[in-house]
Amino acid sequence: MADSKRYLHPEAIKRISRMELRARHIVEGFLSGMHRSPYFGQSVEFRQHREYAPGDDLRHVDWKVWARQDRLTIKQYDEDTNVRCTLLVDASASMSYGNGPLNKYEYASTVAASLAYLILKQQDAVGCVAFDDSLRTKVPVRSKRNHLQAVIDALDVSEPRDKTDMYSILRSVAETYPRRGMVVLVSDLLTDTEQMLRGLKLLRRQGHDVLVFHVMDDDELDFPFTGPTRFDGLESLDYLNCNPRALREGYVAAVNEFLDEVRRGCARNMIDYALIRTSEPLDAALATYLSNRLGMHHKN
Asked: Cα–chain-centroid distance for residue 55?
């Protein structure tokens, strides 16, 4: 896993300019690492048999049935069930911040494109929405392999702009995608937390399985600033000149309180939550998605 991890680091990903190649590089690197892992291929829960078809993995043949009935059958597991997944990607102005190889929006859209490629590779269906205070681009849920380009085009919006009106976006998504499936939100969640959780709860009430990737820059979490600094608002015209050292303790306490509120709110509503730093390799998001994907049929 260590070798593939190196190729999934943001600095390596930044050098791949085309999003489609980036997504393929990340997913194939991640899967090659998984195949070398002793845990790869362990299935969740046996569900039913189906007839063997040429090309099926012989590891899943039920040899006991073959011995009794002289016919080849495949054990199907819950992860074989097709899933409809909608990716919601935050393109508001605060997502343009970044002090590493990728800013938050570049990181979030790379995660979304990689998930789309992985989902289509699993023969599941994926759709995509990019938003700020309104829906900027929307791609319907499809399972065809060539659908990846439509998702990438939706993510290739102009520079992040405007504020985030998270509740109205989530309510609109709930109305647009009423069929039960998985909804993946990729955002810095810098919006009204109560309204955001209210919107996520609405999706859960509809029966959707919800996964939140909370994308944050190291600077936002660690507040490493020292000398006199001017901080400019990304979603307002406000600015602040200050000595960061005097603010650091209060800032870190406020951020931790924010993170705790989001985590607790997600846990209360059975929403899977993962905090991801833009300095971290991108495989963490894929591993979290797959873990959720395998367990979702038991959660609802």
From this structure: 30
For the domain made up of 82-299, give the CATH fold: Rossmann fold (3.40.50)
Tokens of 175: 């109305």
- The phi and psi torsions of 262 (rounded to 5 degrees) equal -65, -45
Contact 27, 121 (CB under 8 A): yes
The runs of H, that is alpha helices, within 75-158 are 104-121, 148-155
pTM recorded for the entire structure: 0.81
Domain ranges in the chain are 46-79, 82-299
Tokens encoding 269: 């509503």
Q: d(Cα 131, Cα 108) in Å, to the nearest integer? A: 12
User: Which tokens sit at 186?
Assistant: 């990729």
- Residue 133 confidence (pLDDT) above 90: no
- Judged by average pLDDT, the poorest of 42-56, 117-131, 140-154, 190-204 is 42-56
Q: Going by DSSP bridges, is the β-strand pair 84-90/125-131 parallel, antiparallel, or unpaired?
A: parallel
Give residue 222's Cα distance to chain centre. 23
